[in-house]
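Morning!

As promised:
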Amino acid sequence: MKIGIMSFAHHHAEAYLHNLQQIAGVQVVGVADADVARGSQLAEQHDLPFFQSYAALIRANPDGVIVTSENSRHLPLVELAADAGVHVLCEKPLATTVEDAGAIVEACADAGVILMTAFPMRFSTPLLAVKRQLAAGELGEVLAIKGVNQGELPTKHRAWFVDPELAGGGAVIDHTVHLVDVMRWYLESEVREVYAQTNRIFHADEVQVETGALEMLTFENGVFATIDASWSRPPYWPTWGGLGFELVTERGAVIVDAFSQNLVVYSHDEQRPTWYNWGSDANQAMIAEFVAAIREERPPRVTGIDGLRAVEVTRAAYESAATGRPVSLEV
Amino acid sequence: MKIGIVGTGSMGTTHAEAWAETGAEIAGFVSETVEAAGELAAAYGVRVYPTLGAMLTDVDVVDICTPTHLHYEMVLQAAAAGKDIICEKPLARTEEQALEMVRATGAAGVRLLVAHVVRFFPEYAQARELVAAGKIGRPAVIRLSRGSYRPKKPIGNWFLDEAKSGGILMDLMIHDFDYARWVAGEVESVYARRVSENDPEAAVDYGLAILRHRNGALTHVAGAWAYPPPTFRTALEIAGDQGLIQFDSESSAPITSLLRAVDGEAPDVAIPASPLSESPYTTEIKAFYRALRDGTPAPVSAADGLAAVQIAAAAIESAQSGRVVALEPLTEVSQ
């Protein structure tokens, strides 16, 4: 099976490339990047063909592509792939607007190709274990969720993460979608109302987008949940950030940390504690699912619709932050 | 200084132990159940009065440790008698009552100190001191949580009676509402949700609130009456533009017991209270004692108690209405 990489704008592309190379029978057909210098350098580094245009990559007939361009530049690449009958794994958030996210879903549906949203938390082993307990009824009915997905300022990876045009915002669009997706997956219910408060106190001199964000979601089934999407981790934090939640049920509570499986390392090199994760690689399982869905000609475990729903909630959060009022989502 | 303690439940007992370590004299207790309170009173060699009115002439200071809904009338009664007052948190069941209590004590020229004990827990006090000293810059996002099991009472569980206690948002989360305001200043708006609002019959209660402070800082407050006994855990995180402070009662517990249950006994787990040379309740009462003795400002004022009730009442209103509740600045607080 041949897979192509469309853009290295998102640093996850390198991780996915590594993941693809671990799967038997998968060949990375090549990479393309609007930033030719970046793309050709990374292609050379990984000993892969570099295509001068996205169209040229698609003409090489991959079975699927991974779209890892800037958040606002997913749509044209997805359309290019879908129109050629190529399956798509698209980085999260699916798009920066509900319109674009809807167009992405529609383009893939019309072309009859697989569209998967890159939500690796669906493949996190701790989160899967709790999902199994929930589904088996071992935890009782969920009443509320307190979620955190805090991080450091992501500009150390790529500058565009704080560009309102390219990223679609700041901390809210960066760190809302993962937990929204986990909550929808766990609750099997849709978000009906969103309240959000944001500020720009962290890194106020460096960026123009919001860096602090607290959100409250209300689901159709009555469950309420908060998300802390803040870029509140200082640059010397032991790792990039984290994702976790407290699940409150009629039986009590379960506290989950997706990234607690760490070694704590103290090294003269870093002069501060650093966390080295030894947990199972959720990205690897996610990429394997994309490959398996193509092979087995079936929908992936997480779809474009899941990506669209998360974008809808994110845009509602921005509307709420702007108006100061809770925002309802249409049924 | 003669102290009269009203209420002989767990708080009345705790305050008595703390007063015993000051230069004040415990002069008596007030309890509706005179017999049950007899043992406590005997331990301090004093009598039990059946009513607050019966005790007033014998004391200088009234320390009110009764259920929340009784605070209002007792404070007004003690103020009318010219007594200085210490009142357990929440100051009152409603904002209107709290406001009237602040005005009445002001008009009577008596002190009203509100027992927000979290301000006297060393971890919370130190974190606030570090923020005030500029150690982490300007606070941006604060996270506070506090959780245990549903309060139990041998008789008449007033904690679970919404009309008496105000429920989890007023009784439990007010600790962190007060702390948030102490750290990041006045609160502008509140949005909250709670389990009991959706399902009054639920076996557990849980509340989440988002506060916006006037200076732009945001605070997330979580309160749980949802964990199995004897769990009691609290945590704080104050993230600023120049750093971050964390505390977690679980990870900072200096003693972890991994003891097998003694034969024939149910497994028992020790509550992970950090051993300290002085109970935070004693630290609190000592501070109040000095403030009353010397006529100096106390670390928690009547206005602080009022402001905390205002935030909690707004959270209750928000959870009921589903709307954001804006807080009106109170002149009694800003003075």
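The longest strand of chain B covers residues 139-148.

Hope this helps with the figure draft.
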